[in-house]
């Protein structure tokens, strides 16, 4: 019997499956992956995962069903599942902009639905995943939390903050990558070869993030350590702020949150 069925064998679904096996929570044979075209899951089948192109059949005996699909695909998938899903199964949705209530409208109000929002760093076990539910029991929330702790860090939040989490954590990956890219381009302009500049920018960004994670200090506290009176760091920071660096970042996150909230209805 499959303990977990992941509907949608795309990047998020596959990364979660591999993370669960790597962590030792599951063996590959306990995980079923579904996709409309089974040819796209051949490699996973050789690793021992169960594969299927029939969502309803794959979900029948699963303890946990993960919906790792696009918002546009959700209505059809829920219609396929509504006569299969039973009380007691945990349905985990990683679909952007879709509430627990939206899913229960089709599957039934008595079903257990938990939302999760990972990001693409799930592929290397470094996701920032936010989890929320409307009324699921603590036990179910804890179980879903453990699933995603196998592929990164987890924060449990209120459901009305899920679109905000999408903007800050899922879209946020692209924002930080663009900042790193910009830093590397600045490096080229001041004299470094492109590959050296990128390596330097990436490691510097990683060091900055690790500083905060390991010391639990506030960013401004670490910034103060680098900024000396009349120094080059404060001059650079102030020039960036004069051109709206922080403001642009904040506005981008706000706009992404607005867009994330409308994905399902669009």
TrEMBL record:
Pathway named in the protein's UniProt entry: Amino-acid biosynthesis; L-proline biosynthesis; L-proline from L-glutamate 5-semialdehyde: step 1/1
Coarse class of the protein's main subcellular location: cytoplasm
Places the protein is found: Cytoplasm
Ranges where the Pyrroline-5-carboxylate reductase catalytic N-terminal domain occurs: 3-96
GO-annotated molecular function: pyrroline-5-carboxylate reductase activity
Superkingdom in the source lineage: Bacteria
Span of domain Pyrroline-5-carboxylate reductase dimerisation: 159-260
Protein EC: 1.5.1.2
Catalysed reactions, as listed in the record: L-proline + NADP(+) = (S)-1-pyrroline-5-carboxylate + NADPH + 2 H(+); L-proline + NAD(+) = (S)-1-pyrroline-5-carboxylate + NADH + 2 H(+)
Broad class of enzyme this protein falls into: oxidoreductase
Function of the protein: Catalyzes the reduction of 1-pyrroline-5-carboxylate (PCA) to L-proline.
Family: Belongs to the pyrroline-5-carboxylate reductase family.
HAMAP family: P5C_reductase
Name of protein: Pyrroline-5-carboxylate reductase
UniProt organism field: Sphingobacterium arenae
